[in-house]
Each structure stands twice: as C-alpha cells, then as structure tokens.
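Recap quiz, item 2
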Amino acid sequence: MSTADLDLPFIDEAVARIGRGPEALIPILQALQDRFGYLPQEALQHVCENTEITPAAIEGVSTFYDMFRHKPVGETMVRVCRGTACHVSGAGRVEDALRRHLHIPADNDTDPERKFTVESVACLGCCTLAPVIKINETTLGHASAENIPEMVRAYEDSRNASGAAPSTELPGEGNADAHEKPAIHVGLGSCCIAKGSDRLFQALQEAVKKSGMAVEVKRVGCVGICHRTPMIEVMIPGKLSTYYADLTPAEAPALVQRHFPAQGIFTRASRLWTRALDTLLMESEPGVERNAMSERDPTVNAFLGKQVHIATEHFGTLDPLDLDAYLARAGFTALRRVLDGLQPEQVIDTVEKAGLRGRGGAGFPSAIKWRIIHQQPGDEKFVVCNGDEGDPGAFMDRMILESFPFRVIEGLAIAAVAAGAHEGIFYIRHEYPLAVKRVRAAITQLEKRGWIGSKLLDSGYPLKLSIMEGAGAFVCGEETALIASIEGKRGMPKLRPPFPAVEGLWGRPTLINNVETLALVPWIMRNGAEKFAAIGTAKSKGTKVFALAGHVRRGGLIEVPMGTTLREIVEEIGGGVPEGRTFKAVQIGGPSGGCIPSRLADTSVDYESLGGVGAIMGSGGLVVLDNTTCMVDMARYFLQFTQEQSCGKCTFCRVGTRRMLDILERLCAGKAEKKHLEELERLARQVGAGSLCGLGKTAPNPVLTTLRYYRDEYEAHLRGECPAGKCSALITYRVTADCTGCTICAQRCPVDAIPLTPYRRHVINMDICTRCDTCRQVCPHNAIEVK
Amino acid sequence: MSTIDITLDGQEVALQPGQTVLDAARQIGIDIPTLCHLERCGPLTSCLVCLVKINGKLVPSCATKATPGMVVESETEEVHEARRTALELLFSDHVGDCLSPCQRLCPLQLNIPVMLRQIQEGQLNDAVATVRQSLALPGTLGRLCNHPCEQGCRRGAADDPADIRGVERFIADHDLRLASPQLPPCKSSTGKSVAIVGAGPAGLAAAYELTRQGHGVTLFDRHDLAGGSLRDVAETELPREVLDAEIVQLQRLGVEMLLNVELGNRVTLQDLQRDYNAVLLTVGEKGKAEDGKLGVATSPAGIKTDAATAQTSVCGVFAAGAAVKSVKHLVRAMTEGKGAAECVHRFLIGEPVGRSGKPFSSIMGKLDTAELKLFLKGANSEARHTPCDACAGFSDREATSEAARCLHCDCRSAGNCAFQHYAQVYDADPSRFRAARQPFEQLVQPGGVIFEPGKCILCGICVKLTEQASEPLGLTFIGRGFNVRIATPFNRTIEEGLQKVAAECVKYCPTGALEMKKS
C-alpha cells in the first residue's frame, strides 16, 4: 500500500480521539488494525510523525502483541483456537484440515488469492465447545477435520444470505420485577452465541410476538451448562423451571406453543398455521420434548448440586446489562454501605477476616495488598481489574465479565475506596469482545445515572473508570507486564520488589486484582466475612470458579466451595469422561500448573493441596484428560505455549523454555536418549529457579508434574513408543480384518493415502498418511487400528 | 545518612541506601559476572548471569537493592551452577566462533587469524610477536608441523585451505634473518631455578615457557648439540642453520645450556634436586631406555607421571614428552613440554599444580553455502599459492597474498569479550544444549559498524542507549518469545538506527554482536 492509498484522515481522526502520548500507542494500533486489517508501515510512520510515539516504540510494541499483523490479510479471517481443551480434542488436525481445504501454502498463512487467512490463537475461551474456530467474528464450536468444508460453506452461505444479524447487545430494559412474570431465559455468553443462541433468541422473540403472549424473552448471562448450549430456561411463576438444551431456531415456535398456549380464536388460527408449518419443517424429527430437562433432572442436579454461587450469584437469571435487575437483587448495596459509613480500614479488615485470596493464580491474600496500597501516601493511585485471562483452557473471567459486569464494577469500586484510588482500569483481553462490549455498556449506563465519574453513587468520592483492551500476550497477566502494557509498552515484566502496590502504573501505587476476586467482594461486604470464611478449608476460603472442559461429559462453568475434591468435580459435576474412555488426569492451572493423575483425584481443591501435588490453583482452567492423551505431548504443548508467550527478556525463560521444548520435541519424535530426559529435568528446575517473573518460574510445572507422575510414558518415548497413540511420528495406522471394503475411509482420506478397493480390505500407505485420524473416526466398523 | 549493612558470603558490607547487591560484591572484590549491566542504563535484568541467592531464592544481584540484614550467597556451587546454565543457554543460541577453527585445532594455540591479518597488512614485527607468543621454534614448526590447523580451515570448503604453515615459516625466516631477531617479553625474575634434562622438542618448548615466566632455566643434554630428535631430521626438511638459529634465540632469551652431561653419569637426580627448585625430565624416546639411571619410577611405556600434573614419583620432579609416552608429531611433543612447563611454574609459585584448560570458544560448526559466501566476501579469491622457490619458501608478495586468503573466522571481540571471559571462568560448556542453529549473518555498514545478529544476547543495552540519546530511529526489540531480535524500526539499517551513539553501543556491547570495522 502506498501512502497515497492510505486513509490518512482516518489515522488523524484516531490519533485526535485516542491521544498523542506514549500510552495511546496500543489503542491507536488497535484502531489501525480494525480499519486496515493489518498495520501498514506507512500508517505506523504517519503515527510517529504526528504523535510523541517513537519509531522504536511502535515497532517494538506492534511486534510484541499477537493481535497485530504486519502483512495484509485475506478477505476472511479464520482463527483456530489452540487452547488446552482444543488441543486435546484435535485442534491440530482441524488446523491442518483448514489449511488444506482453503489452499493455504505451508510457508504462509494466507492463500495466494488472499481469500482466507488462517491463524492459530492461544485460546478463544470457549473450551467446552472444543475444538473451536472463529470465522471473522463468528465463533463455531465442535470443529473437526471432517466437518471443516461444511462449516466454511455454511458460514459463507449465511453471510451471503443475510446481512448482519440484529444485535442482542442493547442495554437491558429495566424489568426489575421480571421474575414475577413468565419468561424465557436465553443464555447469551460467548460460548452460547458460538452455538447459535443469538439466532435462537431472535427466533424466540419472533415466536412470542406472533403468539401475542405476555412472555418476556430475556437475555441472561452464562448458565454454566455450556456443554448443552444453546441453553434456555422457561420460567413460569410457581412452577419448576424447564431447561432446554441444543435447541435450534426452527424449534422456537413449537417451544412457545408448548408452554404458552394462546387464547382467542383468531390467534389460535394463526398459531395453528405456524404449527403446521413447523411440522412440515421438522418432518419426522421428534418434537421439542426431547431437549427438555426439568430442574429436578438428575444430570442438571448433578451438575448444579455441588455448586455454590457467589461470584456467579444469580447465574442464568440476570440480564447482564439490566442495571435495575441488578439493583433489585441487592446490587450496589455493598458499595453503598462502604461509602455510607465504613472506614477503608474496616473494609480491609472485612476482606482479611473473610480470608479472601487472589483468584488469579498465586492466591496472595487480598487484604495485604489492599492494606499496603491504602498505606501509601498521596492520592494518585490506581485500581486495575486484571481481565487478561490468558491461560489456554480457562474462560471464567470472560464469563464473569460477560454475565456480571455490574458486580465486577461494584467490586472494583469497593477496592478503589479501600485503597484510596480515584481511577479504575479494566484490562480485558481483546479476544473477549463481548466482555469488553458489556463492561463498556455497563460503565456507560452508570455514567448516565451519574453514579461514576465525579461522584461514586451519590457520595462525594470521585472514581473514573476506563477500559484498556489487551492486545494478545499471556505474559500481561503478570502484574508488572500488565502495567507496562497499560503504559503503552512491550509487556516485559520487571523484578519485584518494588511491588506495584508501592510503585505501579506511572510509578504510582497500583492495586491489581483479578476479575473473580473483585466479583467476590460485593458478596463478602453484603453477607459478612464470617459467612464467606465459613465456606472452604482452613486456609482457602470461599468458592472458586472453574472452567471445566476437555474429555468430560458435562463441561461448563462451575463455582464450587474450596475443598471440593477433583473427583467430585470431574465425576459428579462433570459426569466423568466419555463412554469407553478412562479418566487419566486433570490439568489444572494451565501452562503454570500441572497434570494431576486420576489416582490423586481425591486431592482437595485449595491452594495448599494443589501446590502439594505439584500443580497450582491457577486462574481456574480445569481440563480433564482421558486415556487418549499423551502426557509427553501435553508437556510439549505447554512448553510450546510458554516459549511463544515468553516476553523474551530473561535468559532462563527465553532460551530455557525453548531448549526444554527442543528436548520434548525430540521425545515426541522418538529421537531422544536417556541423557536428554535427565537434562530436561535438570533444566526444568533451573528455569524455574532462575527466571525473572512468574511465567518463567512456573513454565516448567507441566514438565515436572508429568515427569513425576508419568515417567513411564517418557521412557516409552525413549523406546520410540507413544502409549496413548498420539505422537504422529511414533504411530502407524492399519486396517484390520474387520474391514468390509465400504470405501468410506478411502473417500474421506484427505491425502489419498488409502486406495479405493471396494469390497476388499483397504490398505493405508503409511508414506503418504499424515496421521490425521480421519479414517479411524469415520470407519463404521472400527477396523482402523493405531499402534 | 545511615548505611545499610548486609552479609555477603559471610562478610559484612556497609552500603548506601539504593545500592544493590552487585555494588556490595564489587565493594569487597567478589567478581559477580554481568553482561547486561551498565550503570547508566539502570537494571535491565535480561542476562541473569549475575544471580545470587537470597532467602532461598535466586535473584539478579544487579537489580536487587540492599535491605538491612540481608544475607546473600554468591560464591557457592549452587549459584555458580545457575550462572553457568545462564551462560550455556545464551551460548546455545550464539552464532559465531570466538576462536577460529584453525586456532582451536592448533595444539599450541597459535592465534593464526591475527598472524595472517598482520602479515596481510605488512605489520611483520607484530606478526613475529604473535607467533612468538605461542611457539618456541617457529622456523622449525613452519617446516615440520603436520598442521592440524589446515584441516579446520574454512577456506578448504571453497577451494583449498590457507597455507598456514607456509606463512608461519615465512614470518619465522623473516625474523631469523634479522641481525637481532625478536624475543618475547619475559616476566621479571622469580629467583627460582629449573633444571630441564633433555634438549629435544619437549625440553626446548618447556625451557622457552619457563624462561618467559621469569624462572632461571638450565637445559642439560648428553649430546654436544641441543635439538634432540630434531638433529635426526634430513637437512632438506630442516636446514641445520634454522635449528641452530632457533636454539641461539633460546640462549639469547636466557636459557643456560649444559651439554654433554648425562643424568646418572656425571650428575644425579639428587644433585639436580639439591641445586634447583624443580626438575623436568624430557629425555626423549632414547633417554627413557636408560630408566635405571633416572631415579624415578618407570613403566614399560616410559616415566610414570600423573597425567594432570606431569609429576613423577619424586616430588618436585616432572617429566614430559616422548620420555613419558611416545609422541607422533613434533607439535604434540612441544605441547607436552609447554604443558609440563605450566605445571612446573605453578609448582614453583606455590599454586595447585595442573594445566589450564583450552581457551573457551563458542563453536558455530559447518557453514552452509550462503554463509560460506559471506565469509568469502573480502577474502583474496586467488587459489592457494605454491612458493616459486620451494627451498626459500614464500616471497613477501606470496606470503601477503596467501595470508589474504584467510576468511577471518575468529570473532572481532575475542579476548575482549565479557561473555567469552565469564564462560571461561565458569567453565561453561557451549554445546550443552545442542540445537539447530540460526544462520550466520553479518551486516557490514558503510560507516564501519558491523552487526552480527546471531551473536546478540538481547541484553538491551543498545536499545536503552539509543532511547536515552533520543535517536531519531534507534534500535528496538522485535517480536516476542524465543524469536525476539534487535533491529532498527521500519526495516532500516542498523547504521540508520545508530546516528548518535554508534560508538557507545559498540563499546558497551557485551559480545561481538556490534563491532566497528578497524580502519
């Protein structure tokens, strides 16, 4: 692109709107990327010429964060999630299939005609729908090598057929007493939308309108039962709720008809006509009853029974953006109490008595942080809500921000008052557009009511709130890197001390708390420290929200008391691993955590117990692994991740993780020797001890825990065997005598490694075979053997 | 202002507020290694070779401010291992050789590329000094050496290796022809004396080294002429006048020669032990046959010695060369003599006896075609020269031209590089982590700055210096993770990024990544 083609007025307008200081850099780059699809060099130079931003800063920052591209993209952007749940569910094969299907050359990410760009992303946070892909702004779950062509076609058809769907993101309507009336609740979290709940929402609205009934079709936040989305709940006052799972928009009229039979001849006639049409549409499909689950349904009971909802209080019933509904459920009463008469010390004492510890990973006692910053002199202080949930396999913070934006704001406001800060910043990763949108809409509503800005609620306490969108860097979850990022720099951590609570953003005292931590605060202030402390274990109080995903029947978003065992989570709440598989391990804490074997499944979920088995609580990603998971591959997967996500500053992390990955790659390729295994262990300990920040210090955990619990698998790889049959260099595919010669495998093989031999046993040419596993998955006779 | 007292390796150190653990170490003379540390840049905490242990945790000492009562461990095995690992990790991604392959292969560690550059530039006296730094008998080796150096010469991959031995002979002959050939610098006298028995290659080499160390050396030989087995070499291969001239050089250096003296006949080992502070037996293949007369324990192979210290069964008596074990090559025999000399030297000054290890060098390995092309740039493209007059060796012109065929595989920073220095001190193994290496790149800028990105350890000093100097473009980190690199923004050249502070950046670069072309 030459300077002449560049939309310079747009750039000038963006600069004028965002600012000219160094801290404006990331938002400006985001604006440019939105406009051009990438960052043309001429545009960057133009920015430097018209702002205080230096060329060194703009190049350094724009190459640091994942979201920024320096090359033009294809018309359609396809992102493949490489999060943990997606990885263990075959994201690699999905990406291979996509690249093949879209004719992307091996050394590029865009096809020669620039129609498609395929990019892998760290985690889209829709782990229960793994593997997940995202085509432009549409997220699609349950992708597989086989259904990729269909998915792409369906996306293109829908885009050609209709323009943009009407938004489901309007502010709530202020039905404070809505729960007194019949209503249909539709979960509209990102996961739900990925499975089409927005279309279902519109279809239901349409159907209700036609029926003429006084039924409210209501958007609600995450219901948590993510494995059955789109999920709706039909609420009729005085009756048990009925949940519907896996509904399609076409079934909306039948559902409305079932629960809300209309009166009056005229409407009935028109309804009959609708039903007739439905019957036609649905042909011989069974009716909506098949999808119904009553609240007393055993699976729903098992899923919800063990849960305690504090951070996710009123889950599935609250319209995320309905401020009045939030107020009707005691929203902002905690903040009001704090403003009306509690001294900051009293607030901090309450948090201390409650035993609240940071939910971002390390479990640092929140009150200590709050007190340090409260004691700092001066009144220029900041509170930051850390919503940079970067762990692959975790989506709790996304869900809380999407479903309970007012609650998080309230928690942050209480923290700000306690700390003496007058500026609050929500740092939310850009991969979570819906979370950003909802928090922004929530702030706007509060501003309209005059409840934030110059005075908080109607007190004299000023509090300004803003949102900073992350740009894609796992390391920015680390406090000092997050601060660097807000300041418009590369997210490179600094040695602590000094801690941010003393010297943080712009050198000022800064309180950084995780989303979930802040979401717990209003409940604690409302219900008292004792009530919170009564839940949990001796040292880990309250509840923890987990993103339960991976090889588990009922994945979802759960909140359980501390002290619940892993077994209860996996087997009771999650319903265990899929039929025919065995429960092998739980990966907890993402790239900083570890793999806990099923024999230790009775480990209690609390900071100390998890640390004791070599893992960490982490932010709450909990990926269940069954016997098809190779633990060496698991370790390799995480090291690949940390190696890419390392800021690249300190030697141990930058080079050390790469060297660990080298050894793991050797192992997965069957080319490692015993000495490599010894070196891996030695280096893992040294990287952990020597790295500068938490990312590097914890990066070896996935290696150390798998070495501790699954050394036999490592040793098998030394012999060139992969017991789980995952490492493609070590396995072969064979057609057994059960083959009937049905030719399905031959037809579906993407690389034509299976000659078509009807009615005869097929043979796989292993020289051509890419181990994509398609044949095994499509074979109706289980005649494909992997060894 | 009151001071902050900390304990570093058991020593109390008083510091000013704001001072770091590294400051404390420097104050009491503990050499904590640093690569990314430059006072004016503030703590960059990137290299992490300055780790110390505080409260059970390893932390970078350069950024850790002292607090009252802090207890720091620095010189412990655990801390050293961590520092060594940091160095080894950095070397695993360091593309370049500190020392050229030819020098690494030379048993006597002659700095061949420097010698060749000096000859190429006509600085013959300097070249002589370089040669004399490593070789006791350059004229002899210039004729007889089996030149392992040439096997490593990278020029060999393009056509033929440089004729290193031929050029060495040229420079030695040039010197010996002068009225007073050059002598190497010697340290002032230590007042200690050494008797060396046997004036063959090993003995001569040992005499040369020990004299340079300031010890008084007396060389005994049972023949009437020094030279040992070298006297058996055909005149056509080693003219006597060359050998004689080289022995005269040793005498000029201060080696006393007592010829026609045989151990066991006129003098005994006891005599030597009485009259000298140490004795070195280099009696050669033939001398060892008369083992009974030597007075030290022997085995069928020769005199029994401790391989690491060259010590015989008798304290203060050392042995080396063919008398210990038969040696095939002249250069090896001389290396043995040189090594034994080091052991004797350490014995004399009261240090633990032993030989120093090989000098540290990062090893790049084989070059691919593109890399070889890069190295060939600037080298003389002519084919390997053969002297017109084989007996006389290279003419001035031939020698200069042959020297110019050198690809200069050594690092410009070698010997002046903190990274190499600490690797040596910490005995780092540059090949602990074997990995596919990055391609070698060299960007020679018209203004003289040379950037070799593969040698950059991403310390961040140059990035900080350009930022502080408000360079219009400056340098920046590009990318993230393992693939971070340093570059000038907007794909501009390094020189464009270094308009104001090029000299400082070159000066403070802790490796050979940024260098200035010497005019």
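The interface with chain B takes residues 41, 44-45, 54-60, 63-65, 473, 490, 494-495, 497, 643-652, 654-659, 662, 679, 683, 686, 689-692 of chain A (CB under 8 Å).
Confidence is low (pLDDT under 50) at residues 276-286 of chain A.
End of item.
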